[in-house]
Amino acid sequence: MNIFKLSIKNIFNKPLSSSISLALLVLGVGIISLLLQLNTLIKDQMDNNLRGIDMVVGAKGSPLQLILSSVYHIDSPTGNISLAEAETISNNRMVGSSIKILYGDNYKGFRIVGAEKKFIELYKGVIKEGKDWDNPYEVLVGSKVYEKLKINLGDELISSHGLRETGQSHDEGTFKVVGLLKPSNSVIDQLIITSPQSVWDIHETHDHDEHEHEHEHDNREITAMLIKFKSPMNIIQFPRQINENTNLQAAVPSYEISRLFKLFGFGIETLSYLAYLIIIVSGFSLFINLFNSMRERKYEMALIRTLGASRFQLSTMIIFESLVLTISGFILGLLFSRFGVMFVSSLMEESINYNLNSLKILNEEYWLLGLSVLIGVVSSLIPAIQVYKMNISKILADA
Amino acid sequence: MLKTKEVEFNYDNQMFFKFQNIDLNSNENLLIIGESGVGKTTLMHLLAGLLKSNSGSIKLFDKELNQMSSYQLDSFRKNNIGIVFQRPHFVNSLTVKENLQLAQYIANKNDNTRIESILKNLNIFEKSNKKTNQLSQGEKQRVSIALAIVNSPKLILADEPTSSLDDNNCSKVIKLLKKQATDFGAQLIVITHDSRLKKHFKKSIEL
């Protein structure tokens, strides 16, 4: 038996009031930790897919839409731009490297992207089985796509026009799976990638049958171009030049994404204020519990004092009781948030093909631990001081 | 062993008590008897070091209680004094055995065989793992005696241990207290208004 054990026995002796304070704290800590985890995971995921892309060039429209469609592959493209114009830009001396990408088709809802091979290198894609494409109509398939649709090497995929499953299907658009990619934890996991030529060919025959052969070259279009600058300095000037002087739109992903985060950051902030409020209420409930139980237990306290325990030991017991509750509240809150993250990520994987599975403890969560300890100490301070100043003789004489 | 001189105490300048001198030798028991309102409980608290007198001197086991700090008094109490209250008090979240273990812990002791022998001696060993609110009144009283003697005190102070008991139980309890004191080598001071106890003590003083 010791003071610590006694604290725990006291908590279990009052299961109802203890669990109310505990539940409030778990809820508060859980919500904040869930928000932190989701925010960080989504941000990490976004940043992870952003690497090596300083600027995206595409058709005029919403810059955020351009970024979401051509970097994250979760929105419709703004339109197409002509290959010739894109090439003028990629030849500019400020451009370090550029990757052209084209959309057109999907296979059962997964996008088929025509892209230069540099695209796969950009995301550090590695072929698990099979080989790279050599000819048009040969495709590499990302890990989530083949896992979900059970695609094997050598399968033939009949694509549909557009980016959604419901598009009309091309009779001609039969792709052959020549390679499967290893999971890379980036956007290419949920893409089917082929050469730009395949996408041109399929739409050439379909849309432009009547066009004469020599015009073909001029008419070729791409959806967007991902650009890396030679020097980071160019990020200020170059996008503006393009936006002002050409028909094209240039968007800077890091800027657009931070704008997006500001937009839904407002909601996160409001929700976390609410959660902090819940934590404060849990502190009050803890205080009231301790205060009441201290009054109920005053003879008990007096007894412990007469047995020879010091004022200090008794006050420590009260603070312990509070800390045991708040620290277990913190731990349960973290567990709660981890289950929440798993739940949300399973939902998100269904809808936008993103996977958010990493459960490390964030720095902000250590702050939450600090906050829980603080709540534990503060709410037990007054009861502890009262126990410290308790007049045992008077209590025993009243008995 | 115990020597008091001119002990005075007043509560917030309203009630004033002046106690007669006590002189008790080693291996003597003492009955302090008095009507309600003469300051019996106050005197007991003074002897236990739960209160400090305004003037005078209380010398217990050659230590002057009035000169000790509150921390020293706590420590003196746990090493020397066991208290039996008029109404038994326990830590309700703990079992009988755990209450005794807590008392030992506070006195930096840990001796389960002593707990067992005390509980057996008091005939409540089979209640060891019961919560204290599951006990009958008589069992509660015996557990409170166990709590008072578990740390082998040199002095047992008992405050009105028999006031609510009938004659039969009254003499049972006082005999039990005296037996425990003798068995475990402690002196007994009983403070009461219960004149039935007079015949059990050789030495008594009236307040």
Arithmetic mean of pLDDT of chain A: 84
Major β-sheet strand ordering of chain A: 3-4-9-6-8-7
DSSP strand count of chain B: 10
Look at the helices and sheets of chain B and give the structural class.
alpha/beta
The global form of chain A is elongated
Q: What is the CATH class name of chain B?
A: Alpha Beta
Structural class of chain A: alpha+beta
In DSSP terms (H or I, runs of 4 or more residues), the helix count of chain B works out at: 6
Helix content class of chain B: 25-40%
Radius of gyration of chain A: 31 Å
Order of helices and strands of chain A: HHEHEHEEHEEHEEEHHEEHEHHHHH
Q: How many domains in all of chain B?
A: 1
What composes the largest sheet of chain B? Answer: 5 strands, antiparallel
Strand count of chain A: 12
Intertermini distance of chain A = 27 Å
Chains forming the largest contact? A-B, 27 and 33 residues
Catalogue the unreliable spans of chain B: none
Total number of helices of chain A: 14
Summarize the structure in words:
The complex is a heterodimer of chains A (399) and B (207). Chain A is 58% helix and 17% strand. Chain A has 399 residues and is an alpha+beta fold. Chain A folds into two domains: 3-46 and 264-398, no CATH class; 55-251, no CATH class. In chain A, the strands form two sheets. In chain A, strands 3-4-9-6-8-7 form a six-stranded mixed β-barrel. In chain A, strand 7 (156-161) and strand 8 form a beta hairpin. In chain A, helix 1 packs across helix 12 (311-352), helix 10 (253-296) packs across helix 11 (298-306) and helix 12 (311-352) runs antiparallel to helix 13 (363-389). Chain B is an alpha/beta fold and 207 residues long. In chain B, 34% of the residues lie in helices and 22% in strands. Chain B has six helices and ten strands. Chain B has helices at residues 40-48, 70-80, 96-106, 112-121, 137-149, 167-183, and strands at 2-11, 15-18, 23-24, 30-33, 55-60, 63-64, 81-84, 155-159, 187-192, 204-206. The chains are: A alpha+beta (399), B alpha/beta (207). The A-B interface holds A 1-3, 6, 9-10, 12-13, 297, 299-300, 302-311, 313, 392-393, 396-397, 399 and B 41-42, 45, 48, 50-51, 70-71, 74-75, 77-79, 83, 85-87, 89-94, 98, 101-107, 147, 151.
